[in-house]
Write a structure and sequence with these properties.
455 residues; alpha+beta; Helix Hairpins; Heat Shock Protein 90; 3 domains; five-stranded antiparallel sheet; five-stranded mixed sheet; 10 helices
């Protein structure tokens, strides 16, 4: 895609309307100048006609005064031509053949009559003027015709308009230069901001605190928030890798030791026994690895809200069914309380199922031998879906609630990776909900809250 510099875009945005306004102003100037030229030149023709009428009355048609001749020779920048004939049609003075009067012209012209015509192959502007006077004893209405080449007024219009356009062009050029250098100075803070951003690296993600114009503060604030999120994400990744390496070190070492024991077994019976231990160790290591991956995936990118909503009621039923299948050999009673209507939420079905299944598995693994019943109750209140999961096991003391949802945290020693509840907590946070451990008199009660779709 072709890109343009911000400076070029700003200049184009500023100069394009200015150029349009200039064109409109030029067209208006041309029309105004044309009308003004017609008025000026027409008045010149009338002045010449009046002077000629006066002179022929004074000199009986013999001669024009010097002043009138100067007026005729150079009126408004061009020579005038004239023709005078008496009431009886007798030629008095001037050029012998005037331009032909249009057929639409009135015979009696009480006012000066202007018209355009062709005279000897050229366009001319003509004035027919009738004046009552006496010449050589002949009294009556004398017809005076004065005309001038139309190119004279066209040249005048072109000269005036050309000067106007030259001034407008000079102004536009001046504005363009001012804008070019002004925009350059105005963009200097953004160029400084670019240098500041270029200094950031995966190991240096400090917020940008450089002063910027008001218009760019929103951009800088957004960028700083992004840098903060990236920094926290990288820190979380580093911490996760470190913890994962620590947690996997002992199981992997155990698997390796058992593998060597199988290899060095003195007899087939010992080899078979150690092989069974190796399989169990490998299975536990696989479970730990999968939980580590689930924990990291649960803290991934934000939930896509554009998908189809899920029925939380059906999802809980599916999880309970899977849990019963996995724990068919236990005598734990599972009770399920669900509302009649569907409960629609936005979410990732796989991650939500894993979160709820982790909580149920936690009840079996850490609830102790006294666990005999697990109850799940789903309800809706104040725009939220609330899922309560309670067992009758040994419970979690209030002082250990924070540790229980911490990564690799275990309130008591025993089997498990310490990731069950942290995975569930992360999944809930990623879905805009929450996980909390309630204080109850016996057993453990974990409450999950979900925002209901459409509320």
């Amino acid at each position: 895609m072709r890109s343009h510099s911000l400076r070029s875009r700003l200049i184009l945005i500023i100069l394009a309307p200015l150029l349009l306004i200039s064109l409109v102003a030029g067209a208006w100037q041309f029309r105004t100048t044309t009308l003004r030229a017609e008025s000026i030149f027409d008045r010149g023709l009338l002045s010449a006609a009046l002077a000629i009428s006066r002179d022929i009355a004074v000199s009986d048609g013999d001669a024009l005064s010097p002043a009138t001749r100067r007026l005729i020779n150079d009126t408004s920048g061009g020579e005038l031509f004239y023709h005078v004939f008496a009431p009886d049609g007798v030629f008095v003075t001037g050029y012998s053949t005037p331009p032909i009067l249009p057929k639409a012209a009135p015979l009696r012209q009480t006012e000066p009559y202007y018209f355009n015509a062709r005279y000897q192959g050229q366009d001319v502007r003509v004035l027919r003027f009738q004046d009552g006077t006496t010449v050589s004893g002949i009294a009556g209405i004398f017809n005076i015709t004065v005309w001038q080449n139309a190119d004279v007024r066209s040249s005048f219009v072109r000269e005036v308009v050309s000067r106007s356009f030259a001034v407008i062009a000079l102004l536009i050029l001046s504005v363009a230069l001012v804008v070019w250098f002004g925009v350059g100075l105005g963009l200097r803070p953004l160029l400084d901001l670019e240098k500041a951003i270029a200094k950031r690296s995966p190991t240096e993600l400090e917020p940008i605190r450089r002063p910027v114009p008001i218009e760019a503060r929103g951009l800088v604030d957004t960028l700083n928030r992004l840098l903060d999120r990236i920094s926290r994400r990288i820190s979380s990744k580093d911490e996760f890798i470190s913890n994962a390496a620590h947690q996997l070190r002992n199981p992997v070492a155990g698997v390796l030791a058992l593998a060597e024991a199988v290899h060095n077994a003195p007899n087939a019976q010992a080899s078979k026994q150690r092989s069974a231990e190796l399989v169990q160790a490998a299975r536990e290591t696989s479970i730990l690895t999968n939980q580590l991956l689930s924990f990291e995936r649960a803290g991934g990118k934000e939930l896509d809200q554009s998908g189809e909503p899920l029925d939380l009621k059906a999802l809980v039923e599916q999880v309970v069914y899977s849990f019963r299948q996995q724990n068919a050999d236990t005598k734990i009673e599972i009770s399920l309380g669900l509302p009649e209507a569907d409960v629609r939420i936005q979410g990732d079905a796989v991650m939500l199922q894993e979160a709820i299944l982790n909580i149920l598995t936690n009840s079996v693994v850490h609830g102790g031998s006294r666990v005999s019943k697990i109850s799940l109750d789903l309800s809706c209140a104040r725009g939220q879906a609330v899922l309560s999961i309670r067992d009758d096991g040994v419970g979690i003391p209030a002082k250990d609630h924070v540790e229980a949802v911490s990564r690799f945290g275990q309130t008591r020693g025993g089997p498990g990776s310490g990731l069950g509840l942290p995975i569930a907590a992360r999944v809930m946070k990623n879905h805009g909900g929450a996980l909390r451990i309630e204080d109850v008199s016996s057993g453990t009660m974990i409450v999950l809250t979900f925002p209901i779709e459409g509320d």
